[in-house]
Write a structure and sequence with these properties.
Blueprint: H1 9-36, H2 45-49, H3 53-59, H4 84-95
Length: 103
């Protein structure tokens, strides 16, 4: 398959805008389906662990695709700003919708 080569920065901007629109639309569709009672599970490990997978997803224990988030993925100590462990915690919080900033 041939890769598309962009001749100008304008074409690249249009392509990235289109990708962002499609991703936003997909996320909104998943949220609508979840609210309507339809689940799109890829991994069923959360179904085994929790009685109610929908409740676990709402509380942030399981992703919308069924993956269980780890309970304590990091050391149980405080870390300094700028350290690797501190950055990993910040990324994990964004993934699990805790303290997430929306653009």
């Amino acid at each position: 398959m041939e890769e598309k080569k962009f001749t100008s920065p304008m074409e690249l901007d249009l392509a990235t805008d289109k990708i962002h629109k499609v991703a936003k639309n997909n996320r909104e569709k998943l949220e609508e389906d979840f609210n309507a009672g339809i689940l799109h599970l890829v991994d069923y490990s959360g179904v085994k662990k929790f009685k109610s997978i929908r409740r676990a997803i709402r509380r942030g224990h399981v992703s919308i695709f069924g993956e269980v988030y780890p309970h304590r993925p990091f050391k149980n100590i405080s870390s300094k700003r700028g350290s690797l462990n501190f950055m990993q915690k910040r990324y994990y919080e964004q993934l699990t919708h805790k303290n997430r900033m929306y653009n």
